[in-house]
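Box S1 | Example of a co-folding query
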Amino acid sequence: MHKKLFIPGPTEVREEVLKAQSKWMIGHRTKEFGELYHNCVTKTKEILNTANHVMWFTASGTATMEGAIRNIVDGKVLHCISGAFADRWFKISKACGKDAASIEVEWGKAVKPEMVEAELSKGSYMALAITQNETSTGVRLPIEEIARMVRSRFPDVFILVDAVSGLMGDWFEIDELGLDVVVASSQKAIALPPGLAVAVVSERALEKCRTVPARGYYLDYDAMMKRYDKDHQTPTTPAISLFYALEVELDHILAETMKSRYERHLELAKFTRDWAKRYFELFPEPGYESVTLTTVKNTRGISVKDLNTALAEKGMQISNGYGKKLKEKTFRIAHMGDLTLADMKEVTSAIEEILKL
Ligand SMILES: Cc1ncc(COP(=O)(O)O)c(C=O)c1O
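Box S1 (continued) | Returned holo structure for pyridoxal-5'-phosphate
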């Protein structure tokens, strides 16, 4: 039975997108695949209003988080930790043998520009890693303010952004903010099945990577761009079926327009937050709530497992809290991708009915 997904990834995938994956296979060393990949790159740039390089990897978002570190970091990197996924990125840097430091705030709170400024002022940092939309806490970091501060006070510092659960749902100007690397996964607001991940890379970041030794093989930006410039292909075998699906969804986003898509996400977020405040409390610090998911404080001590069992009978699923600190204390309702206000009304009414609210 089809369960409509209100979890923060994988998200609900439209039938047209699912069907696109069943097309006949083509060789990846063909003009046909080059055209498909090139279309995906061009359309992604148009949607994101960016002139930066776009690289689609056959991988999940974690790989592109690691890729950003391996390609760019050859000195000290500062991680802003406000939840489980930012913590993962910090661990990735360490696992790659990098000189990584962190500032950490209480989970549910946002890292503020002043905190980043104070730490970067200590000097010697060459990169900053920020999680734009922390999917565990449901906090949206003030990426615009942080980036503007970094660009004016520390112009040489590379800004690396994990926008895994924000990109193509939430909105921020990549080029205007001078973001050097922005990464995301296909199974979140892009509303595709899992398996693809994107890196949007500035020219100076691409140039930088060419000077970083031992940056690995699979996620090497230079190799990706060399192959793309040659014949619009990828260095290794791509998930061709997913690229078929990606082009269909990118066309859908272009038709909707990114502006309307963002406004729809804002509307769904507002509806879900208002609903959550009526019966529970919001977990994130006020003013920093995510646009693509709502993390709700479980003030009624409900069993999310039991709730999901009952929701499954109605063909829906929400998500429990994420990470040791939040698993029991919160639950999450995603409103990303192609979900509509009618979908949010459906799931919240079902919850009301099941919990007898
Ligand atoms: C903010 C954030 N970063 C990174 C990841 C990891 O992405 P993936 O599961 O595609 O590797 C997730 C996944 O939920 C996420 O929400």
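Residues 23-255 form a domain with the Aspartate Aminotransferase; domain 2 fold (CATH 3.40.640.10). The chain has a mean pLDDT of 98.
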